[in-house]
Amino acid sequence: MLVLMAAVFTASHMLMGAYPEWSTGLGYVNAFAEAAMVGGLADWFAVTALFRHPLGVPIPHTAIIPKKKDRIADTMAQFLRENFLTPSVVARRMRRMNVAASAGQFLVNREGGERSRFMGGGAELIAEVLESLDPERLGLRVRAGLAGQLGKVELAPLLGGMLENLIADGRHRPLLDGLIRWAGLTLEDNEEAVREIIRSRANSVLRWTGLDSRISSSVLDGVYRLLAEVLIDPDHPMRGKIDAALIKLATQLKTDPEMQAKVEAVKMDLLENPALADWWMGVWERIRRSLIARARDPQSQLGGEMREAAREIGLALQADPRLQAQINRFARRTAVGMTSRYGAQIVALVSETVKRWDAGTVTDRIESAVGRDLQFIRINGTLVGGLVGITLHAIVEVI
Fold it and tell me: Crossing angle, helix 274-296 and helix 301-319, to 10 degrees?
């Protein structure tokens, strides 16, 4: 446009001398072109002076942005701090957002794309976390945590209540039947050993007469018959005695300090037993390796389980207003707390980052962000200058 205006100015000036009769109209054209050149050059100078020295000449008050880079960084950081990272602004903004519902919609509706990457990334994160942690140290921590929690639990009253509930509902009967069958099978497997015990306790007369074998057979037959009767008859008196003994045990577990102390002592002995610690470490290592393998295997059910669990969570987040209110309140308080605690650090990070940029980087980034607008500033300056020139020429002609 500057070249065009310079050409129009030169041509109109030459034509005014060659054709005096057209001087009036050419005067307006000449005035427009002259003022347009001045306006375009002035705006070019002004815009260029923001970013660098025009034509490389170190004119005072030019290259403003490179020279004031640190001040610009502080101003930007202060603006960010005052208008975005204040607790009141964050709280007001978060109050308008339904974080829980948005998260629920994401978990329910996104069957692929970002949701799949999210699930895949979650499974990989689980695997990497489990691999990066020291298995022995983590196992010891988990064991110590479990032992600490179990140590705080009064086991005897808990067992007493459970046993009492089992007896009241009759849910102990299948277990009792299983124990009777187990006793019968165990006795059958060790029948010869039992016979030998009975014979060894018989006196020499019984052994000499052979009555020891008949006595042992009678004892075994009586035990077999008793076990069979108790197993078949749900109203057998032996069952009543067993139930009474179990009820007495449940009552003692709940109320007898001596029984409770014995149970607590057994519990502590088990928790401090090295064999139990070794067993737990083996169980934990198998669990850890299984989780890593399942997380890394694309065909594993872990991914499907994670997706289904995420979908269930999403549905709950969308359907439960109370849950939404709690999560939104937690998110709002968390954001406000982070703003209060780390807002100054975030602002300082912005300021220090900009300050670390070299002047050329700052200039290039700002200029590239508003480059087209800078061109239009120069174009508008050229056109506005031309219009001002025509106006001034017209005023001079009238006067």
Answer: 90
Q: With beta carbons less than 8 A apart as the criterion, state whether 311 and 108 touch.
A: yes
Assigned token pair, 225: 């018959």
Condensed to tens digits (0 to 9), the pLDDT of residues 100-149 reads 888 777 767 655 444 455 555 566 666 676 666 666 666 666 666 666 66
Task: Compute the distance between CA of residue 349 and CA of residue 46 in angstroms, rounded to an integer.
Answer: 31
- Is-above-0.85 flag for pTM? no
Main-chain phi, psi angles of 257, to 5 degrees: -60, -35
For 36-78, how does the pLDDT look when each residue is reduced to its tens digit (9 = 90+)? Answer: 999 999 988 888 888 888 888 888 888 887 887 788 778 878 8
Please provide the DSSP assignment of 244-313 as one string: HHHHHHHHHHHH-HHHHHHHHHHHHHHHH-HHHHHHHHHHHHHHHHHHHHHHH-TTSHHHHHHHHHHHHH
The SS3 call for residue 346 is helix
Q: Tell me which residue of 126, 180, 142 sits closest to 300, measured CA to CA.
A: 126
* Token pair for 117: 């990457």
Rounded CA-CA distance 57/158 in Å is 89
- Tens digits of residue pLDDT in 322-336: 888 888 888 888 888
Of 145, 129, 132, nearest in space to 280 by CA = 145
* Structural domain spans, the chain: 2-67+359-398, 153-272
